[in-house]
Design a protein that fits this description.
- Helix content is 41%, strand content 28%.
- It has twelve helices and 15 strands.
- The strands form four sheets. Strands 5-4-8-7-6 form a five-stranded antiparallel sheet, sandwiched between helices.
- A hairpin with a 5-residue loop joins strand 1 (50-58) and strand 2.
- Helix 7 packs antiparallel against helix 8 (260-281), helix 9 (296-313) runs parallel beside helix 10 (333-349) and helix 10 (333-349) packs antiparallel against helix 12.
- The longest helix is centred in the middle third of the chain and has 46 residues, at 209-254.
- It is elongated, with a radius of gyration of 38 Å.
- The protein starts with 5 loop residues before the first helix and ends with a strand.
């Protein structure tokens, strides 16, 4: 160093004479000096004319000072390098603010991503969890479009164009893809930050998957409520004249007016209509459940006995397998039978060529029991599987689309949980119920 001014002495704590007796290496952190030395070499080689670099300089009392160095090369008339002029600005406070801001971003509960030229340059820890990524290196440098659902890419490109043009986009819902192939619903806000050439895009994302599930649940509940009101109206309108018809038929039967065979057929059909109306009313209001402690195995045996005739007609064998020493549960027996009958009936319909249906019971843990109903049908396509809980959605010609919703409600009312998995090799229904202690 040939000459220093009092400001540098103030920044580093050395006197001017002390500084002149030192080299640049003496007042620079060793790991930072390599980078600084490289910049100076480029200046001397004429590759750059001036440059700014952030680096740490060493205070006299042996602690670091963050500085911004503006380095210029002074040359002779012949173009030979004479000396360097280095202007030193203390940016320690700014770096502290940046570090606090960086820590805030890094620990934020919302995912934050910085995108430049449509490539991801930075992502915080929450963003990594969003996309199920373990290391930042797995995503840095990749194109953000690759992580957007294919159906949403065209509109996403439009958003990116608008942000790059200087517009801020607020609270837009998007579908992002994770590295494990799953998609999540996110709400994002994107705003431009000028980088000296063009706008980078800063994105803040929030996972709204649970919010979307809740919205869908409320929508389905509303549909079911409307269905219930409709069912109640139909049932009551039909039941009133049906009661009169049934009464007069019974009177005519007692007085032997007409053929006995005709009366039997008519009464049988009227009774069937009454049964259908009773099932329809399940949608209109909660039924009074009659819970009692009962052995689940006995319920399954009764259901198998009831469904065996239909199974035999379709060349199907229903096999029971109990893998637990306790099956005592608190339940409404008739409602659980309704659930098992519905699922077994679906399994029979899924196996037109016959085969086995397995009912397996396991002790899931100390508090619950797991029932599997397994068929060997062709399975349920993914696009249908995700919609089977929707009321009125059905693939059956004469189906109402209400059976799965009713079964799910019954299991939930028993503090249980219903699960369905399917593949081209068959479908497995999982029913989790709490054990009685």
């Amino acid at each position: 160093m040939l000459k220093v001014n009092p400001s540098l002495s103030h920044i580093l704590g050395f006197t001017e004479n002390e500084l002149i007796s030192l080299t640049l290496r003496d007042i620079t952190f060793s790991e930072d000096f390599v980078k600084l030395d490289d910049y100076i070499s480029q200046l001397l080689l004429g590759k750059i004319s001036s440059h700014q670099i952030e680096t740490r300089l060493l205070h006299k009392h042996n602690y670091g000072i963050w500085t911004l160095l503006s380095i210029s090369l002074v040359q002779s008339n012949e173009g030979n390098p004479l000396y360097l002029i280095i202007q030193v600005q203390n940016i320690t406070e700014r770096k502290k603010v940046e570090e606090r801001y960086f820590n805030f971003i890094e620990r934020s509960s919302e995912a934050m991503i910085i995108i430049s030229n449509r490539k991801i340059q930075y992502i915080n820890e929450t963003g990594l969890k969003f996309l199920n990524i373990s290391e930042k290196e797995e995503i840095i440098g990749k194109t953000v479009i690759d992580f957007i659902h294919p159906d949403k890419r065209n509109i996403s490109v439009n958003y990116i164009n608008r942000v790059e043009a200087g517009e801020t986009i607020y609270r837009i819902e998007e579908i992002f893809g994770r590295v494990d192939g799953k998609f999540i619903n996110v709400e994002f806000t994107a705003f431009p930050v000028y980088n000296g050439e063009k706008n980078d895009m800063h994105v803040i994302m929030k996972d709204i998957s649970e919010k979307k599930k809740t919205e869908q649940f409320l929508l389905n509940s509303e549909k079911l409520n409307v269905a219930g009101q409709l069912a109640a109206g139909i049932a009551h309108e039909v039941r009133n004249p049906l009661t009169a018809i049934k009464g007069f038929l019974q009177i005519m039967d007692r007085e032997s007016i007409g053929s006995k065979m005709y009366f039997d057929v008519l009464l049988s059909e009227v009774n069937r209509i009454e049964l259908v109306l009773t099932e329809l009313l399940l949608l209109s209001k909660p039924q009074n459940t009659k819970h009692k402690f009962i052995n689940l195995e006995s319920i399954i045996e009764q259901v198998i006995s009831l469904m065996s005739t239909q199974a035999i007609l379709h060349n199907i064998e229903i096999k029971k397998e109990i893998n637990t020493d306790t099956c005592m549960i608190s339940c409404d027996e008739n409602q659980l039978k309704q659930v098992f009958i519905n699922f077994i009936k679906n399994s029979i319909e899924a196996m037109p060529n016959g085969g086995p249906i397995y009912i397996k019971v396991f002790k899931r843990d100390n508090d619950s029991i797991l029932i599997h109903i397994i068929d060997r049908g062709s399975g349920i396509p993914a696009e249908i599987l995700k919609r089977i809980w929707e009321p009125f959605f059905t693939t059956k010609e004469k189906g109402t689309g209400l059976g799965m919703m009713i079964c799910n409600n019954i299991i939930e009312n028993h503090n249980g949980k219903l699960q369905i998995s399917s593949s081209p090799n068959g479908t497995t229904i999982g029913i989790i119920l709490p054990l009685n202690k």
